[in-house]
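Honest question from a wet-lab person: if I give you the sequences of every part of a complex, can you actually get the arrangement of the whole thing, not just the pieces? Trying it with mine:
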Amino acid sequence: MMNRRAFLQAAATWPLARAASIPIALAGTAEVAIAAAPAASGYRRLLVLVELKGGNDGLNTLIPYADPAYYALRPKIAIARDQVVQLSDRVGLHPALAPLAAIWEDGRLAVLQGVGYPEPNLSHFRSIEIWDTASRSEQYLQDGWLTRAFATQPVPPTFAADGVIVGSSDLGPLAGGGTRAIALADTEQFLRRARLAQPGTAPRNKALAHILKVEGDIVQAASHLAGRTAFATPFPADAFGNAIRTACQIIANPSGVAAIRVTLSGFDTHANQPATQARLLAQVANGLQALKGALVEIGKWEDTLVLTYAEFGRRPKENQNNGTDHGTANVHFALGGRVTGGLYGGAPDLSRLSADGNPAHALDFRDVYATVLDRWWSVDSRAALGQRHAPVPFLPA
Amino acid sequence: MPIRTAAFAAFCLTAIFAHAAPGPMGFDDARHLLARTGFGPNDAEVRDFAGLTREQAVARLLRDARTVPLTPAPAWVGDTAPLRYPPPDTATFEERRAFRQQQTRLGIDLRAWWMQEMLVTPSPLTERMTLFWHNHFVSSQQKVRFARLMYAQNATLRAHALGSFATLLRAASKEPAMLVYLDVAQSRKGQPNENFAREVMELFTLGEGQYTEQDIKEAARAFTGWSLDRDTGSYLFRPGLHDRGVKTVLGSSGRFDGDAVLDLILARPQTSTFIVGKLWREFVAADPDRREVERIAQIFRGRDYDVKAALQALFLSDAFWAADNRGMLVKSPVELVVGTLRQLEVVPGAAMPFAVVAAGMGQNLFSPPNVKGWPGGEAWINSNTLLVRKQFLDRLARMGDAPAAMLPAAADTSPPRESEGDATSIDMRSPASGLPPLSAADDDKLRAQRFAAAVDRGLRNVRFDAVQWVARRPGATPAAKQKSAQALLLPLPPLAPDSPEGDGDALAFVRATLLDPAYQLK
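Yes, you can. This is the full assembly:
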């Protein structure tokens, strides 16, 4: 029989046992449980989605600086080789993303190349709908993919909310019935206003039922989100920095949420792309750097997965206005304390573009979602997404 | 046989009349009609219509629809200066900033002007339809930049709001604001920009799935040459930029230009079905009845896309009046704000603060979120926007009580910060939001703070006294007055009937009624 000392040693080398057993084995000694900081499981692990709204230009985000075809397609807006933050002998980051290099070197930044889906749609609304609902190109689904995941395996009712949308009023992956989704711009403002909510009963029609559900969600979230954490980490004083600051206030609250979505808009760079994209990518990189700092500060970096997404990428060939038009496959990032860093998927083959000038995708975005569901939350991705998708090994099995 | 025929005819007539309710509508029907086709009506307006039959009432609404605004436009809309941005290569930072600030100021003027028109118009249906088309032929000042182009577009939408959709489509497509917003002005032979060609089919006429990607590419070629004369601010056709080649669009081939493509689109019956379906969701119910939509679409295209013909059929449809469809559409932010002020007969000192309040609820006039417009319906209500709505209503209800003490901080009217950093968005934060003071270098935010303060001052000038308003309601007793107030304000019985009866507190009654979840519905 295992003695207490041996148990603790074993637990220390076996995170899952540690998480599952310590609160039971040492029931009543809360200090020890806190000191041991058990690794989170299930929805105690947080997902932070970062939407790069408008369709960030992936080809100037992860630059194939060794590919002459890249410079041929973009005589005016290409990023010069000597500006690129090199990740390999073929690709490197936009210089504005330099703050992410430290996370890359730490092995906690996964770069997902060529993310897209078959028969890509080039309309902003339709394509973001496809991403948000994890549908096929020709399939119309009502509920967001997180809403479906939370229907497959419910978030504990003690959580402040299932998910929080920061700084945007469209609920995206949290849209649809059933989910307790809170949209707010900042937590203190939310709490002041929440006093006006009044949950009711007996909805008499669909619109009214929706309003009453939202009233109830507000009351529940407000009862949990009071309190404010002072972070030593500075947050950038721009739109994205403010959203990250608000997200960190929510994350610091002990009652928990399963997912947070923050949005940065403005990536629809049809004209004069270079200055705009550089400004936006700098906001993203500085914001993510602050997010990591704040998460480390409160001991949650290990239990957080950050994932970027957008409706589509942009066309490899630049247009006549120093910009780029709607495209297809795109580059995205996954980062967090448990992420296995590196390059995943495949760089777009610029020598084999489709008739409309776009590359084929190398990685299906639903494979990325399946990775989150199966490997981060242990939610059956097949049940939530409706079909089998192979996880991508940026998270350990 | 003749007797049976006559009896059958009599039976049919009876059925038709029972069906059409020939007598006066009464208060509830009149309230429903005016709330659905305009903004929240006040008591006098409802009683004015209550004596009419449904047919008479609808005929009067359509007959009295205005095509020009009552409120004088800001003087600057007549500017004729060339449309020039500060040149990116040579302009100084200060010049660019001055340009942004100028257009921001004009954009705020413009929002206040439209809000004022909606508050005072004797033709609310015209403004509702102008807003409908603003959310259909979308453009946003955030991209268009020049406020006077947004004004010109608004005037065009209003002029044709209840006219011919075919005329409106042709005019709206060539509006300078549209040429800029969907990049037609940057499209040229050999380098066609597909943005407008895609949206005109997907969002303005046919709807998704009714065309191919190839149709878009070919149509984009046809629209080349449509351009903007930046010296005059007007539409200009530039033959040198136009692709004169043969295109194949929607199964037809020819040397089409843009107008020819619009004609091909208008010849498709699907266009009328698509527009009527959207009108149904605006005025009748969230889920269109396909057979009814098709019936009205036939009327619409049979009458050369006369919007009044479609609206008449829509407003006289059974579904429009069905009990099950009442009180089940969500008020848009503009409907909530304008309707509340009109119903409560509030005299606002200035309209600008209310444009900002609506923006805070997710509807920033002249700045829809994207070319698809505001999604509307239940999407108006989430945990953020519902609380902004309630806070506004709470503040208004309590104004007669202790004005100074009850006014919340300016930050509480701040809209969602989705478009921060954009020169023309109404966007503000202040230290009162709990965040550190903003950097002095951050010009946009300082302006936002000043703006928030202006909103606060504007709202302080509003006068509304809930007690007096209830006292003016018809009814012999305080309880009767409260009952008629509730019948005016709510489309459904209140969910939380917790207000004191009898000569209870009128202010508490108004506040409870406005904060009732049913008040969000129309």
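Two things worth pointing out. Chain A has 13 helices and twelve strands. Chain A touches chain B through 58 residues (CB under 8 Å).
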